[in-house]
Amino acid sequence: MNELEFIAALRAMASEPAARGLEDDAAVLEIGGESLVLTQDTLVQGIHVREDEDHADIAWKLVAVNLSDLAAKGAEPVGVLISHMLGTGDERFLDGLSEVLGEFAVPLLGGDTTGSSGARRSWTCTALGRATHRPVPDRRGASSGDAIYVTGTLGLAMLGIDEDERNIGSAADLAYRRPWPLLAEGVALAPLVTAMMDVSDGLFLDCRRMALASGVSFHLDSGSFPVAYPARADACVRWGDDYQLLFTAPLDAALPVPATQIGLVDTRGFEPLWIDGRAPEGDWLGYQHD
Peptide bond preceding 135: is omega within 30 degrees of 0, i.e. cis? Predict the structure, then answer.
């Protein structure tokens, strides 16, 4: 089974409303008059991080990408649980974990440790957050007539992993090694967005996901994409690992954070995603597991 087939099978089991049909960045549990947001991500050596990655950077990225999912729900972090596979670099992992938890004032609540036994190592984080606005932003709320926006610059992480262009400590290098979850921006946007998610797997793929979840079509203008390297603009918007916020909002909304309008939402046509009036070319829209 490929990733899409496996997720489709899981959706048949995820019948609780909190699961949001497995079409969102996180689950949302209504408890005691508040909304608890839960999300989980795994990093695998050689896939999500380089084989020779500094384990301090692995720990940072592991927590940061989960906090980015909370940001897309306008949630404030309550804490994280960490699953760590023991091996080389454990001390550096602890250093990085202490840094990222301190930077974002996130408590460590628990987790698990296991031996690696020579296997490719992996690390998992579960993040819990408290929603600051209800209803909690969803991928499924985009409506015809909304504008489509994205924060920040796309493609910096792609440049950061490119050894030919790598400059340690540059914005591109840090975007790849130590992504910055936009927690404050997510909280500010939560009251006015109609749909929101973070860009983790590439702009085209994530736009398509949001359009499908909302039952609409996204019409994007490639000339408006805020890319880090115009000469490789197509790769910048497909590569992923950006952790910027992708959202829709009414055209006349006064945005509380800087963002670029990249298109408009229309009623659902026979394609969920259009770029410059045409369906995207090629099968590769963004990152997907085989």
Answer: yes
Give the pLDDT confidence of 6-63 residue by residue, as tens digits. 877 877 676 677 666 667 789 999 988 899 999 999 999 988 888 889 999 999 999 9
Q: State how far the Cα of 155 lies from the Cα of 158, in Å rounded to an integer.
A: 5
- The rounded distance, in Å, linking the Cα atoms of 66 and 88 is 24
What does the alpha-carbon distance between residue 43 and residue 48 come to, in Å, rounded to a whole number?
5
How far does CA 236 lie from the centroid of its chain?
Answer: 15
User: Which pLDDT tens digit goes with each residue over 114-136?
Assistant: 887 767 899 999 999 999 999 99
Q: What gap in Å lies between CA 288 and CA 217, rounded to an integer? A: 21
Higher pLDDT, 184 or 8: 184
- In the chain, how many domains are there? 2
Are residue 49 and residue 125 in the same domain, yes or no?
yes
How far apart CA 246 and CA 198 sit, in angstroms, is 6
Amino acid letter for position 230: P
CATH of the domain at 160: 3.90.650.10
Who wins on pLDDT, 279 or 164? 279
pLDDT in tens, 217-240: 999 999 999 999 999 999 999 999
**Structural domain of 178:** 139-275
Q: pTM to 2 decimals? A: 0.91
Residues 216 and 115 in one domain: no
Tell me whether residue 31 is exposed, middle or buried, using C-beta atoms within 10 angstroms of its C-beta: 0 to 12, 13 to 18, 19 or more: exposed
63 near 100, Cβ under 8 Å?
Answer: yes
The Cα–Cα gap between 134 and 51 comes to 41
CB contact at 8 A, 95 and 155:
no
